[in-house]
Amino acid sequence: MPQPVHYSQPIHLDFSSDAILGRPALAPYVAAISMHWNEIDARIAVFIAALLGTEGATVINIFLALKGDAPRRALVDSVTEQKLDNTHLTWFARDPEENR
Fold first, then answer.
1. What is the CA radius of gyration of the chain?
2. Number of H helices, E strands in the chain
3. Are 20 and 26 in contact (CB under 8 A)?
């Protein structure tokens, strides 16, 4: 049963490969999350390439070369603002309340 986290003491977090190997029941979940995240990235890259209507392979390579979520989000925001009309653009709003 999970226990509450007590912030009165420092919390040691270990994200090394040894930590994963030491918890074999956790390993399949880590692999599944990684696989799903890669699939999400690939689909976003294809979507951006389709919106731009240019050389798909080049656009996909540029998107996947960006490191971190902030640059990728900035690219998606920029492309959607330029290519989508206001009706469709609301689906890409940062605030989910704007989509209602």
1. 19
2. 5, 0
3. yes
Q: How many CA atoms lie within 13 A of 18 on its CB side?
A: 2
Percent helix, strand and coil across the chain, each to the nearest 5? 65, 0, 35
Tokens describing residue 88: 């469709």
- Which two three-digit tokens encode residue 18? 């040894």
pLDDT tens digits, one per residue of 49-95: 888 887 778 888 888 899 888 998 898 888 888 888 888 887 766 56
CA–CA distance, 40 with 18 (Å, rounded to integer): 27
Give the pLDDT band (50/70/90) at residue 98: low
| SS3 of residue 24 by DSSP | coil
To the question of pTM greater than 0.70 for the whole model, the response is no
Q: Where are the alpha helices (DSSP H) in 22-68?
A: 27-52, 56-65
